[in-house]
Write a structure and sequence with these properties.
Number of helices: 14
Bound molecules: pyridoxal-5'-phosphate
Protein name: dTDP-4-amino-4,6-dideoxygalactose transaminase
CATH topology of the largest domain: Aspartate Aminotransferase, domain 2
InterPro entries: DegT/StrS_aminotransferase (IPR000653), PyrdxlP-dep_Trfase (IPR015424), PyrdxlP-dep_Trfase_major (IPR015421), PyrdxlP-dep_Trfase_small (IPR015422)
Enzyme class: transferase
Mean pLDDT: 96
Pfam families: DegT_DnrJ_EryC1
Radius of gyration: 22 Å
Structural class: alpha/beta
CATH architecture of the largest domain: 3-Layer(aba) Sandwich
GO molecular function: dTDP-4-amino-4,6-dideoxygalactose transaminase activity
Helix content: 40-55%
Strand content: 5-15%
C-alpha cells in the first residue's frame, strides 16, 4: 500500500543535527593546511572525553567497532577464550572478540534495562571465561556493581561497549569508567555524531602505553611527536585507528554541546513517556523504565509490543503516516555467524522477546513538535486496536 503522510513531511527515524560550531571548526581546520590526524582537533575531543568519562586516557578512533577490536587486543584475548556478552547487541560486540579467535558466550538480558543480566552472566562462567563485554543499551548503564563484583571474584576483565552511552551515568559514575577499556560510538545515528567515529577509553593504567602504540600502526610515533624520542619505530602489533582532523573538527563541535544535546533528548524522551503512559496502562505495550539511579542520555525510546505481529502492525501504521520506526537487533545467537562462532548459556527468553517485539520511535535533536505527530499516530493505532477488539 502506498504510504500517505497526510500532507506533512516524513519523519525519519534518526537525523544528525548541526548543533554548534561544526562548520566553523571544519573551515578553520582546512585553513591550517593540515588535515591528517591526530592533531589539535582530535586532542581537543580527547580532553573532552577524558573529562566526561573521568578516564586517564582516551583516543578518537574511526568507530566503536575499532575501539572494541583494540580493547579485545589490549586485554589479551586468545583463541579459545570465552567472553560473556548479551546476544541483544550490535554485531561489533561479538566480532571484536571473534577476530581474536575467542568465543562469544551469549547470556540473557534483564527484562527492564535489556542489559546483560548479572545472574545469567554468573551462570555462564566456565574455567575458560576471560572477560565480560557489557553493553549499556539505550544509554542506560548496566548493573555494574554486580557485574563488576562478579568479574573481580573470577579474575575476569570487563570491557564496556558504551556505543550508545556517551554522557550517561549510573549512581553518579560515568559510562566508560568501569571497564579495563570502553568503546563509544560517534556514528551518525548516535547522540553525538560525526558521520563515522568513535572513542577508545582505557582505564587500566597498565594498558595505556600499549593502546597508544596499537592505535598508531604499532609505532611509538606519539612519543616522537612529543619530542620524547628522536625517531619513531615499529614496536608491536598495530593498526591505523586514527581519524582525519576534518572528522575530529565536527566531533569537537558536537562534544562541546554534549550537555545541551542530552537535555534536549531527555525532554523528547520524557515527552514520549508522558504522552504514552496511559496507553501502557491500557496494555498496548510497555515503555522503558530505567532504574532510578540511571542518569541515561535519552538515546533510544522504545515500545515493547505484546508480540511480533503487533509490532509489524504498528510499524506499518506509522509508515502510512510518514513515520519511520525501527526494530533493533536480530539477536546474535540466532544469526548465521552467531551460531557459527558463538554459543548460548541458559535460555535467552528475554533476548528473543526484545528481538521480536521492540520498536524504536524517532528520537533526534531537532525532532521538536513532530514528536506529537508520532505520539498521535501511536495513539490512533491503540484506538483502532481497541475498536477492533
Ligand atoms: C551496542 C553497539 N555496539 C557497537 C556499535 C558499533 O558502533 P560503530 O558504528 O561506531 O562501529 C553499535 C552501533 O550501533 C552499537 O549499538
Amino acid at each position: 500500500m502506498p504510504e500517505t503522510t497526510g500532507g506533512s513531511s516524513p519523519i525519519p527515524f534518526s537525523r544528525t543535527y548541526i548543533y554548534g560550531n561544526e562548520i566553523d571548526f571544519i573551515q578553520k581546520t582546512i585553513e591550517t593546511g593540515r588535515l591528517s590526524g591526530p592533531g589539535p582537533q582530535s586532542e581537543a575531543c580527547e580532553r573532552q572525553i577524558r573529562e566526561t568519562v573521568s578516564a586517564p586516557w582516551a583516543a578518537v578512533v574511526p568507530s566503536c567497532t575499532a575501539a572494541l577490536e583494540m580493547a579485545a587486543l589490549l586485554i589479551g584475548l586468545a583463541p579459545g577464550d570465552e567472553v560473556i556478552m548479551p546476544s541483544f547487541t550490535f554485531v561489533s560486540t561479538a566480532t571484536s572478540v571473534v577476530l581474536r579467535g575467542a568465543i562469544p558466550v551469549f547470556a540473557d538480558i534483564d527484562p527492564v534495562t535489556l542489559n546483560l543480566c548479572p545472574d545469567a552472566a554468573a551462570a555462564a562462567i566456565t574455567p575458560r571465561t576471560k572477560a565480560i563485554f557489557v553493553v549499556h543499551y539505550a544509554g542506560v548503564v548496566a548493573d555494574m556493581d554486580r557485574l563488576g563484583k562478579l568479574a573481580t571474584e573470577h579474575g575476569l576483565a570487563i570491557v564496556e561497549d558504551a556505543a550508545q552511552a556517551y554522557g550517561a551515568k549510573r549512581g553518579g559514575r560515568p559510562a566508560g569508567s568501569y571497564g579495563a577499556a570502553a568503546g563509544f560510538s560517534f556514528h551518525g545515528t548516535k547522540n553525538i555524531g560525526a558521520g563515522e567515529g568513535g572513542a577508545l577509553v582505557v582505564n587500566d593504567p597498565a594498558l595505556v602505553e600499549r593502546a597508544a602504540i596499537l592505535r598508531d600502526k604499532g609505532t611509538d610515533r606519539g612519543k616522537f611527536l612529543r619530542g620524547e624520542v628522536d625517531a619513531y619505530s615499529w614496536q608491536d602489533v598495530g593498526s591505523s585507528q586514527i581519524v582525519s582532523e576534518l572528522t575530529a573538527a565536527f566531533l569537537h563541535a558536537q562534544l562541546l554541546q554534549a550537555d545541551a544535546i542530552r537535555s534536549e533528548r531527555l525532554a523528547l524522551w520524557q515527552g514520549y513517556q508522558d504522552a504514552l503512559r496511559e496507553a501502557e496502562g491500557a496494555g498496548h505495550f510497555t515503555l522503558p523504565h530505567p532504574p532510578a539511579d540511571a542518569e541515561h542520555n535519552g538515546h533510544i525510546f522504545f515500545l515493547m509490543l505484546p508480540d511480533a505481529s503487533a509490532r509489524r502492525d504498528l510499524s506499518a501504521h506509522l509508515a502510512r503516516n510518514g513515520i519511520t520506526a525501527s526494530p533493533h537487533y536480530v539477536p546474535l545467537h540466532t544469526a548465521p555467524a552467531g551460531r557459527r562462532f558463538g554459543r548460548t548459556s541458559g535460555s535467552l527468553t528475554m533476548t528473543d522477546r526484545a528481538g521480536e517485539c521492540l520498536l524504536r520511535l524517532p528520537l533526534w535533536n531537532g525532532l521538536g513538535d513532530d514528536l506529537h505527530r508520532v505520539t498521535g499516530a501511536v495513539l490512533s493505532w491503540c484506538a483502532d486496536r481497541r475498536a477492533a477488539a
